[in-house]
Structure formats: C-alpha cells, structure tokens
C-alpha cells in the first residue's frame, strides 16, 4: 500500500476517506543511552539510535496501512512524520505519522501493476471486517 508525502498526486483518481495517524514510543535502554552519549561525545553517528528511530517508522507505517485498509482505503497521501523525545528525559523516543487515507480508482492505468494486490488486500480487509467483535486496538496486542 503506497504511503507518500505528496498531497495531490498527479494523474491519481481517488476518493478521500479520512485522516489516519499512528504513534510509536520506544525506550532507548541503558546501553543505547550509553552508546548515544559516546557518539555525541565523539561527534559520531549513533547507529543504535538510528535503528530505534527506523524501527519506530516501520511500526507507524504498518499501523497507518492497517488503519487505512480497515476503512476501505488502499493508499495514504500527504504523509507527515514527526520525531520527539518524551518522558521528561527518560530516553523515550516517539515517532508520529499522519496522512490522508484514500481509495484509488484502480481502473487507472497508473496502477495496472498494483491492481491485483490492492484488490486482494481489499477482499481480505472485507473478510476481517466481517469477523465478530474485533476492536481496532486488538490488532496491536
């Protein structure tokens, strides 16, 4: 499912559904903090912290895609990513993403290569939505 930052993609035909958002908050841990402090002291890069941020981005993308799919969408446009430290200096990294869920008109030739997979995704989401008593939060436990 495409996640893009462009607000109005050229030659895309779609219906706007709703805003989608996701958050990931990860503790850095003592060794990560020590590694990050050493990198800060020496002026180097902290691969450990970069991996934590990358992991947070991945989690947010999965959550955005799921939220979009559950409302019948098949792409997300106008995506924004924000990063922050939370927890009052306790070493918690937060990644937040938001965008606009859309339903692409799949008959458009721009999506010929993705038509089958997006149609399959839509069918599978329909099956999930027909299951009894599922709550959105249950997918993340």
Can you walk through the features of this model?
It holds the Pfam family YbjQ_1. Belongs to the UPF0145 family. This is Heavy metal-binding domain-containing protein. The chain is an alpha+beta fold and 141 residues long. The protein has a single domain (14-140), classed as Translation Initiation Factor IF3. 38% of the residues lie in helices and 28% in strands. The chain is built from 3 helices and 3 strands, in the order E-H-H-E-E-H. It has helices at residues 29-42, 47-70, 115-130; strands at residues 14-27, 75-86, 92-104. The chain has a 3-stranded antiparallel beta sheet, with helices on one face. The longest helix has 24 residues, at 47-70.
Helix content: 25-40%
How many structural domains?
1
Strand content: 25-35%
CATH topology: Translation Initiation Factor IF3
Structural class: alpha+beta
CATH class: Alpha Beta
Low-confidence stretches: none
Largest sheet, strands/sense/barrel: 3 strands, antiparallel
Strand sequence of the main sheet, in spatial order? 1-3-2
Which homologous superfamily in CATH is the superfamily?
Hypothetical protein apc22750. Chain B
**How many helices in DSSP terms?**
3
> Do you know the CATH architecture?
2-Layer Sandwich
Strand/helix succession: EHHEEH
State the shape.
elongated
Taking the alpha carbons of the first and last residues, their distance comes to 22 Å
**Kindly state the mean pLDDT as a whole number?**
77
Family: Belongs to the UPF0145 family.
Pfam family, one: YbjQ_1
Protein name: Heavy metal-binding domain-containing protein
